[in-house]
Amino acid sequence: VTAAPTFDRLALIGVGLIGSSIAHAARRHRLVGEIVATARTAATRARVVELELADRVVETNAEAVRDADLVIVCIPVGACGPVAQEIGPHLRPGAIVSDVGSVKGAVVRDMAPYLPANVHFVPAHPVAGTEHSGPDSGFAELFINRWCILTPPPGADPAAVERLAAFWRALGAKVDTMSPEHHDLVLAVTSHLPHLIAYTIVGTANELGEVTESEVLQFSAGGFRDFTRIAASDPTMWRDVFLANKDAVLEMLGTFQEDLAKLTRAIRRGDGEALYEHFARTRAIRRGIVSIGQDSAAPDFGRPHPTLPETPMPRPYASGEE
Ligand code: NAP
């Protein structure tokens, strides 16, 4: 068992769901000597102070990275370029600079030109999240048993990559490495497309004239409710994801539309065999996801349920009782 890696000073730029979860987990596992944090608005910085998520909260990105040996940028992907430009001249030589963006190609393209040659740039994406955002939403267990994908550029120092990988493993994650382009293609189908479908379907249901809004809410137990959870995800983050991963998402959307057309045709023709074959195949995929421990097979996704109220059952057939 290797000892958990330690960094003297972790700088967090952006303290939302991901940044605050890193802070909680790094503290719990004593991975860093000190956390220095900053956020864009004074309101968030004040909240980070109240929640005691960092040892120091500073006003500027430049100030945050000073003397840090690990810098993690935890902001929407569209904002990463200007932040890299701002912090570039203030980074400590030898520091590891990383991010958590859900898109990798655009982040590498936007950040790399501004980072000096004497730091190690190792982009990362923890594939873990919830539909909540902001500094209050983080928790130390977020990354446990989730994947964190590293996309080190060619020629990256293997020791720096391993140091960051060990940090993520210590937060509970499993680590994989791939190229930014491959990451973006994989995530387009596993994450970005499902979000786009959820955003679409919740909007569609909301605009239906013949089904009232109250009916949509009342009968949302089947399927739709889970789409509404995904469609509640942060609008800024997801706007940036689709703008930054345009090509891969459009490619996957093209394939999706072809498959949807096939199912549409099967329904129109009453081709039950085609529908059954397709649904049987997708059910096997779901079972595969559960069997590798990436989701729970508990009924209703393991949601807690209140116990039923203790109302006496009517006993229409009881006879001879008081
Ligand atoms: P979040 O909860 O909304 O927090 C975003 C943070 O970024 C806040 O501290 C915010 O500061 C700051 N910020 C926003 N716009 C900025 C700008 N233009 N310049 C500088 N800072 C800015 O977001 P999150 O969910 O933690 O997501 C952060 C990153 O993680 C994104 O790149 C996202 O793609 C990635 N990610 C998210 C998930 C997920 O499920 N949420 C999962 C994996 C990866 P203020 O509060 O002061 O505005």
Please summarize the sheet with the most strands: 6 strands, parallel
The Cα radius of gyration reads 24 Å
| Overall average residue pLDDT | 91
Helix content: 40-55%
Bulk shape: globular
| Amount of beta strand | 5-15%
Q: What is the number of helices? A: 12
Structural class: alpha/beta
**N-to-C span:** 69 Å
| Unreliable stretches | 317-322
The SSE order reads EHEHEHEHEHEEEHEHHHHHH
Ligand species: NADP nicotinamide-adenine-dinucleotide phosphate
Tally of strands: 9
Widest β-sheet, arrangement of strands: 3-2-1-4-5-6
List keywords for this structure.
322 residues; alpha/beta; 6-stranded parallel β-sheet; 12 helices; disordered C terminus; binds NADP nicotinamide-adenine-dinucleotide phosphate
